[in-house]
Amino acid sequence: MPSPIEEIKNRLDIVEVISSYIKLKKAGANYKALCPFHSEKNPSLFVSPSRQIWHCFGCGAGTTIFDFIMKIEGVEFGDALRILAQKAGVELKREDPKLRTERKRTYDICQLATKFFQKQLAESKIGTEVKEYLLNRGITEESIEKWNLGYAPDTWRGLSDFLVSQGYTGEEIEKAGLAIKNEKGNFYDRFRGRIIFPIFDLNSQPIGFGGRIFEKIKNSKFQIPNEAMAKYINTPNTMLYDKSRILYGLDKAKLEIRKRDFAILVEGYIDVILCHQTGFPNVVATSGTALTPYQLRILKRYSENLLTAFDMDIAGDWATKRGIDLAQSRGFNVKIITMPKGLDPAEVISKNLENWKKLVESSKSILDFYFETTLAKFDKKTPSGKKEISKILLKVLKRIPNRIEQAHWIQKLSTVLEVREEDVRVELQKIKIGTPEEEIETKELPAQKSRKERLEERLVTLILKSPENFSLILKEDFDFFSPKISKTLSYFKKEINRLDEIKPPPELADSINYLFLKSEVEELPEQNLEKELKTCLKEIKTLEIKNRLNQLSQEIRKAESEKDTSKVQELMQEFNSYSKSLNSL
Length: 585
Ligand SMILES: [Zn+2]
Hints:
The chain is of the alpha+beta class. It contains 27 helices and 17 strands. It has a 6-stranded mixed β-sheet with strand order 12-14-13-15-16-17, with helices on both faces. The structure holds zinc ion.
């Protein structure tokens, strides 16, 4: 019987699965697309239907259907397996030890807790009052159901006792973020007397919770005074929940964001729910953080147009501003919905829906927003006013990735300040931007392939393009190559007459399939493949020999310092023989 992994691979078509996330275009025998994992203008992500693999030649991402789901959904292997098993209709055995992990149990705890909170809302006496409150805020019965809203009872261990009765330990409940351990080592519920907003991952599984204090119980004996002061509390970061990675409502909004080609970003849970309820299903919220690079990368899968409905004051909320600046420098078209002072979207909507619609329609580009607010704040006629204005706006201008767009705003700034465009440009040159977030981002990029790796891949590609030239390297010693390529070449040597139809052994399959796709996709010179191949081979050998010479000279130095003369001599001989072969290349 095939393993579930094999079974899933057999049943699903990689082209179909990937095209449910990104737009694929036919390109010969393969398909291509703009890569969702790095920013690019020309497609370098390819999908091969015949080999059932994908690869991005821009950022190096690939190769299996599981890798794709892990990356695009931002999940680990076990979750990707579950998602694909469901698509393929493959049943994963419950006893599978890999799946009975801590992770799975944490998912189950969150699921059970959601149900528990929902039941409290629906059936308890105080739950009825909470429901009354929600209805008063304009949330419908339907939305209460759809967003799985609930109520955490005002007791020390309501939820914990329930979860323990279901077979979970205090430690597990604590790790799921739902309980807190006191000094005596006893666990008590994190959420007490709060209206519960479950937070879902992209697959609509609850992974965390937001809790809003229910005013009526604020002074009860189960509340710790300074804690009860917090209007909202959230699950801390857990194995499943990381607030810098979650956008509230994205699971329900993602397809609408893609369809309408813009997302609206708000701050609160109730804002999101009311928006979805009133014809704005493309609304999501950050969980009390500035937008992070990770969140932006996820949003970009669905649209590059972002409307924000924050209470934005350029002098004020810097965390918010930082996220928006980051979005702008990532190439998002950011527009600002100017909110009436002190109001949030939920309040605007419940007062008058038409007003909210008008606000959304009259959103203005972030540049216009910055120009207007900055010019309103400082006097553009005085030298010091000009300086203050340019201090703020030059930074904004610097972030515009598109040169032509940037030129437009440079012109505008020079006109407004009545200074020469030349001077604006000089000052702009001096501006340095760069945030800690961006540094983190670069670290996440895959390691660059070394020159040798690139040459080796080119060599194999050349061979696959013209197998008749394989004879050129048949006599070679493959030990000049890295172990994987050397294995691949030995394998090719055996199968030289039927390279087109081989089914590579499992341990080499991914890398060989990748090399085949590369040879199909890459444009190589039509002629002189033979000469290319020879040059390539020579360079690989040169690199490898230089490498070994380097190593040897280090060993010689070491042997010398240890006064091991026979060793030195031995190494010198080796060194000389490599030097000779380097010269004869
Ligand atoms: Zn890529």
